Amino acid sequence: MNVSRRFLLSARLCGALLCLALSLMLAPVSLAGRYEENTLKAAMVLNIARFTEWPTDDGIGATGTLRLCVFDTEGGMLGAFRELLPKRIHRRELVVRPVRRSTDLDACELLFVRDPDRSSVSRLLAAVERRAVLSVGDMPGFAEAGGIINLVRAGRKLRFEVNLGEARAAGLKISSRLLKLATIVGEPR
Q1: Which residue range forms the structural domain that includes residue 181?
Q2: Residue 53 maps to a domain
Q3: 136 lies in a domain?
Q4: For the packed helices 34-50 and 3-26, what is the interaxial angle rounded to 10 degrees?
């Protein structure tokens, strides 16, 4: 078999595997144990990011990295995101780091928040308000409180909500293909 034919077969196989992986990640997912749940949520967040356009995605001012900040008082998500590394989103290398307070968010472009304390969530969202930061939460009412994406359980399924008004205010464009799978909350701006 010549080199070009092997390359074509490899490319088709990779394409098929990518389509399968994306469809599995974006489809409603049955939740198992806590460890598996964190891994599924982390994979879902990264796939949502793949269907999101930042204002810098056109190459103007874009860095070689996409910085994901994780604020998780319940624990487990930082490790789940790191398990999925190395990853590239929009040709940018994903870098994952923990954050402890709202003043640590200057370099974040993707923010994952899991904290039952509403006041700390409000401070985090205020710190990234009107900035090109995709905020993703894992708690009831996150999208209504000003977050952009909220992961929610519907029975044993994992779904997500999108606050389109907040996404637009942040200058983020979320793919219509992704929006078809979401519940839209908040008022569009």
Answers
A1: 29-185
A2: yes
A3: yes
A4: 110
Q: Is residue 13 part of a domain?
A: no
Structurally, the chain folds into a number of domains equal to: 1
Report yes or no: 172 and 148 within 8 Å, Cβ to Cβ. yes
d(CA 108, CA 151): 19
The answer to whether position 10 is within a domain reads no
Closest by Cα among 166, 141, 162 to 44: 162
Q: What is the amino acid identity at position 24? A: L
Q: Tens-of-pLDDT digits for all 189 residues of the chain?
A: 554 445 444 444 344 333 334 444 444 444 445 668 999 999 999 999 999 999 975 554 456 899 999 999 999 999 999 999 999 998 899 999 999 988 889 889 999 999 988 889 999 999 999 899 999 999 999 999 999 999 999 888 899 999 999 999 999 999 999 999 999 997 655
CATH no. for residue 84? Answer: 3.40.50.2300
CA distances from 123 to 1, 69, 160, 180 (A): 60, 15, 22, 30
Q: Are 158 and 135 in contact (CB under 8 A)?
A: no
Q: Can you tell me the distance from the alpha carbon of 78 to that of 99, in angstroms, rounded to the nearest whole number? A: 10
